Amino acid sequence: MRFHILAAAAVLVASPALADGEVNIYTSRHYDTDESLYTDFTAATGIEVNRIDAGADELIERLKAEGEASPADIFITTDAGRMWRAEQAGVLGTVQSDVLDAAIPAHLRHPEGKWFGVSLRARIIFYDKERVAEPPQTYADLADPKYKGLICTRSSSNIYMLSLLASRIAHDGEEAAKAWAEGLKANLARDPQGGDTDQLRGIVSGECAIAVANTYYFARSLRKEVDGLTGSTDQIGWVFPDQEGAGAHVNVSAAAITAHSPNRDNAILFLEYLVSQGAQEYFANGNDEYPVVAGVAMSSSVQGLGEFKADKLGLEKLGEFQTRAQEIYNEVGYE
Ligand code: FE
């Protein structure tokens, strides 16, 4: 694997004279460290990077409206469930790349090369160490009546909640997944509301004893000031669920080539650059995520969460079951 990444870097360094021009990126993900991500690529290849930042759904609509006339080469967003929406909208192209295939584990990229996971997050259980002596150890535990009135989550229409339930459907089947959603709803401390950080803030304020959130929201509060959270994190414990079973539910920030990319060669070079060691560090650290490429260093706040076993479910399944997941949430009245 390491050989291929080095080979990719060598290609980038060796070809600036051949590969100039530009690459146009539509991204719903932007962090300070992403600046270095783009300038390093330009320095290595001579290819200029133009970027448009907007929400994922807005960018998908824009790509659809622009059609063949779209200047976009690359689409970047978070959550494989959102990439599935882009795929359904017909705005993604396909890339076959030995570099990407060697660097990214198969379950973290689309089987036909429609999108590639470039950083990873886990959706895990956080809890108040003073109030919860025996925290849930599995996703199934979240539906156990002994946690009645203790759990906080965001709303069911959120993509993270849809992908989590889609993974339950993929593992346990629809009936079990529905019973789980019903049980979780019965255990809620309040109506679903806010973002993941708000669930963690709920532990600090005492409104929630248990919260479901993505790892990077917590890691971020260890690294920099997050209102209502930083300074109070000693009170919060966390569990990577299903460590004796399938492993913790993970998802990705992902990149894809667009269906009508006008600078296709440059776009492929950019995608391959994203799995180089330097780019992996920028990309993952920008959002306190895990790199997808083995052996790349993670930030100290992320490292502090400890090692865990990740679910190896193919993430394209999260899209496959997304519609059913929303139906199930609706059927059980999960707001
Ligand atoms: Fe997020």
Question: In a few lines, what is going on in this structure?
Answer:
With 335 residues, the protein is α/β, with parallel strands linked by helices. The protein contains 14 helices and nine strands. It folds into two domains: 3-120 and 252-299, Periplasmic binding protein-like II (D-Maltodextrin-Binding Protein, domain 2, 3-Layer(aba) Sandwich), CATH 3.40.190.10; 121-248 and 314-331, 3-Layer(aba) Sandwich (D-Maltodextrin-Binding Protein, domain 2).
Mean pLDDT: 94
Query: What is Rg?
Result: 20 Å
Work out the count of structural domains.
Answer: 2
From the N-terminal CA to the C-terminal CA, the straight-line distance is: 44 Å
How would you characterize the overall build of this protein?
The chain is of the alpha/beta class and 335 residues long. The chain has helices spanning 2-14, 34-45, 56-66, 80-88, 98-103, 159-172, 174-186, 196-205, 215-223, 264-273, 277-286, 300-303, 316-320, 322-331, and strands at residues 21-27, 47-53, 74-78, 116-128, 151-152, 210-214, 236-239, 250-257, 290-291. Strands 1, 2, 3, 4, 5, 6, 7, 8 and 9 form a nine-stranded mixed beta sheet that branches. Helix 6 (159-172) crosses helix 7 (174-186), helix 6 packs across helix 14 and helix 7 crosses helix 14. The chain starts with a helix and ends with a helix. Mean pLDDT is 94; it is low at 1-19. The protein binds fe (iii) ion. Residues 78, 214 line the site of fe (iii) ion (FE).
